[in-house]
Amino acid sequence: MLLSGIFPPITTPFYPEGEVYYKKIESNVERYSRTPVAGIVVLGSTGEAIFLSDQERRDVLKTALAAAAPSKIMIAGTGVESAHGTLQLTEYAADLGYDAALVRTPHYYKKQMLPANLLAFYRTVADRSALPIIIYNFPQATGYDMPAELVIELAGHPNIVAIKESSGNLDKVKQLVEGTRHIKRQATVTETFEAVTPRMLKAAAAESEKQSRELVSVASLAGSAESVERGAPSPVHADSAAKPSSSAVTVVGKLKTRQKEVGFQVMVGAAHQLEPSLALGAVGAILAFASPAPMACYEIYAAFKDGDNALAREKQERLRLASQRVVGDHGIPGVKYSMDLNSYYGGSSRLPFLPLSGEQKAEIEKLMAGIRS
Predict the structure, then answer these.
(1) Which residue among 23, 24, 111, 164 is the active-site one?
(2) Residue 220's pLDDT band (boundaries 50, 70, 90)?
(3) How far apart are CA 189 and CA 2, in angstroms?
(4) 260 classed as catalytic
């Protein structure tokens, strides 16, 4: 699976009394779907997943996926402390139709999180998961920093396709990129080399089948002979929805796909280091700052991909301080208030997070002035 690009890890909105506000999940996801982000992460750290009940997690996953555009890669945060619990939530996400699972490092029993434990954990999950696995390393939150050597060893597993490296350590990003360079895999992409997932293929086939049924219905009403006399198109059989047009291109409905070689994909989680991370070989990013400012983050990525390094660095500098202060210092309440400023729904967070003070809000308003959403 190709994972290049920018992914906002969406927040979980709440009513003032603390219940999940599912309608606002829908509206936020619909709006992200209209931006050029590559996909959306649901139940990441920014989503306060650790504060949700098991049923709330499932309901949030279901709500977000139903609101997302078929063209967006949908990643479910399914990591919990045990392999058993992680697999249960991953199976649920797979049944819904998610494209990949983001699995954070277990960390509660830190002294026992030795290399053998982590190897067994991730290999067990990857062996049994119907979804590709993305390792999630976030030492600022977990207090556990997964060694690069361990990630490199796990990268050889065929169902472990990427890492979200959120330590902010550029030397580690470089080590991960260089240490996994030998891994080569095939990913399905469009003719313009954008990601294609099984969910997208299924949607394309379903649309093709729907159009075929409509053509058959029109032809039967008008009479097949009359249809031919008038030059109407012949009905397309449903079994023609997916067919190879050549050795290189496969057609599914209106979707033309091909194969692209990809390696183990290193993604980062620090918006203030996006441009230098891309320069070191990261393929994209899952950024909390992309929740209030997806366009500002995407513009850095797009400038870099276009080869305009000066513009990428200029755009990086514009959001450097804001991303550090809003995400790194004010945390999820800061992210949510920034969303409110940029016409997304942020709202309140659950305790033990506290509401922002007037002074904190004023600082965020100043930092976010002019940053595109």
Answers:
(1) 164
(2) low
(3) 7
(4) no
